[in-house]
Amino acid sequence: MQRHITISIVYFLAAVFTLSVLLFVGDTKPAFANESFKIIVHPGVSVVSISRAELNRVFLKKLTKWPGGTAIKPVDQKVKSPVRRVFSKSILRRSVTAAKTYWRKQIFTGRNVPPPEVLSDKAVIKYVLSKPGAIGYVSVNTPTNGVKVLQVK
Amino acid sequence: MLHSRFKNSRLHFAGSLSLAIVFYSFCVFAEQNQVPESTTLESETTDTDNTDSGVEENLNKEENSTTLESETTDTDNADSGVEENLTQEENLIPDESDEDEDWLGSLEMHFHGFASQGYMHSTANNYRMKTEDGTFNMTELGLNISTNLSDRLRIGMQLFAQTLGEVGEFDIVLDWGYFDYLFADWLGVRAGRIKVAHGLYNELARVDSGQVSVLMPQAIYSFNFFGLPADVFLTSLNGVSVYGNFSIGALGGLEYQAFVGALNTFSVIAFQGEAEARSKRFEGGALTWVTPLPGLRLGGSMFHCTLSLSASLGLEEIEQMESLGILPENHMSELRFDTSNLIAWVAFIEYNDYGFLLAAEYSRWTGKFTGPWDDFTRLTGLNDERFYVQLAYRFTEWFQLGTYYSVFFPYSEDRKGKTERFSKESDAWWKDLSLTLRFDINEYWLVKLEGHYMDGTAVIYSYLNPDENKIEEKWGLFMVKTTVSF
Q1: Given its phi and psi angles, is residue B165 left (phi above 0), alpha (psi -120 to 50 degrees) or beta?
Q2: B10 CB contacts (<8 Å, ≥6 apart)?
Q3: Which residues does B147 contact at the CB level (< 8 Å), separation at least 6?
Q4: Which of B81, B225, B266, B299 lies most in the core, judged by the most C-beta atoms within 10 Å?
Q5: pLDDT single digits (tens) B416-436
Q6: Which residues, in sequence order, are bridge partners of residue B243?
Q7: Which residues lie across from A27 on neighbouring strands?
């Protein structure tokens, strides 16, 4: 029995080692690693800058009101969006998958639901323009007519 | 010795639902007597009117941009002007009168669900079910619905069904269902059936997609009072909780939760008889310090409860207790005892940043039993000790590796099984070393492979392992589980 368990553990470690080699050989960096993003808000939002910590709390729905009392309405992009991957790593300090895991915890324990997900930068801008208090992120080169761009401290 | 089958308490549920309805009525009244949000919006648009000349200039410069064209289309093909955009925004926001008439239709409903299927196989000893021959008797289903009635008020519920050996048998239960009113980020109230905050991850006991491993660290999250799995009897309570989070400046932030209510009454099936446990009272709370170091948090939780247990003992149980000297002569098959001052506390620390997870928890359960037989209660008073350390790393979006070492001592003063409390020495401890490979195939579907090296038999129940000669001190457990969630 002891031998059986030992063999099983060796097998597992071998599988782990093999997988690790494959993973590190492969390209694990996000395709968008060197590009950046900017934060946009509805033009009615009075703030002009936001800290990274506050942004983190906004998009995890731990900070829910702007100064003045307007509800903050964050909007995410779809999972496969390159700008979401960069934003997630940079501001949420976790991969998109890990962020989805965080939201599953919130959903299935009844605490909260994630921000809506839209398809593109254009859709983010449209959402932000239509919702007072809305906040989103778009690629740094995307024109942002009509919305306000926040400085990230 | 005992294993459990969970069933709802109609009386407790009706009571908590009544409480929730009263609470909801209060929140609606409070909501209706607040300053309407539209008033705030008008002042913002006025400000925008006065200061948006910059916006007009930008719009004129970007005449040929696709973004602009779509916006002008949206604004009825007029040249983009701030006032027309504001008009568009106002049209997107329903009037209060419209809101009253179409309030129900404007609610955004959120539907989510999950389905899990697992396979478990042990090299020796049946654990929680007949695992020595391998078993697929490990299925979970969940469905929830929620909506925001307003920016502050949410309502939701989750139905859950599982089969885990003889637990569940696909009985549909209300996992949680409550009203949630957020006065401010630092103060929210929930009323109804609420998940129990215990340690870092108790609320995730039924959320496979929210955990690294298939089996959560068992010392904290599986085995508990008289062999009743915590993932059955400690999942939710009927009552009220307050919660919130607030900043403490340079020191980071604090998150808290406090609750009071009653656990659901549940049936506990002994291998030949049947038992029922009721909680008379259940209260507790959790406090977490979110430190200035991103990803690091530490804190603790505690609960206190009283339970009464009544059981009809089967012949094998009686014989076992006689052999241990627990039952006196001329005993009766009916057993009834109370636990008073059942207290469980957990201290935890977690570092979770950039895909790296390090978590550790330490817990003690204490309680006094009072019953008809001094011998019985003397030998089975509660004073255990449990802890674990967990490591995990997410290598890529689709692959995460995790491991934990979990230790449980049912009686902290005898960790080697030398006292008469234990029929064999290995019953005095349970050590579990696990390794998990988690594959997130896509955003909806994941697969986990997991292995455990177990040392100790503290959680090996005689009703599943009647032949004591076959029980092994060291054994292995292998699991595969897949979950789809949306």
Answers
A1: left
A2: none
A3: B107, B108, B109, B110, B154, B155, B156
A4: B225
A5: 988 877 878 898 999 999 999
A6: B188, B257
A7: none
